[in-house]
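Open question from group meeting: does this chain pack into something compact, or does most of it stay loose? Before anyone orders reagents, we agreed to write out a predicted structure and look at it together. Recording both the input and the output here so the notebook holds the full record.
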Amino acid sequence: MSDSYIIEVDSQTAGIVVRSQGGYCFFASSNRFNRLEGHLFRNAREAERAARKLVNGDVKEAA
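Structure tokens returned:
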């Protein structure tokens, strides 16, 4: 299992997640995804789903 993953949404890099104590911490690569900055996710897939929800306008569910 890797310690970091690149998160992409619609061929755009949203950020990276890095394994830390308790899960994966999100680091945004553009202002569009700043809302997820520093959030802790159980796994990379959960972070990707949150980034997709943010792009689709479902802000309440993203973080």
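Observations to bring back to the group:
DSSP finds two helices and four strands in the chain.
The first strand starts at residue 4 and ends at 9.
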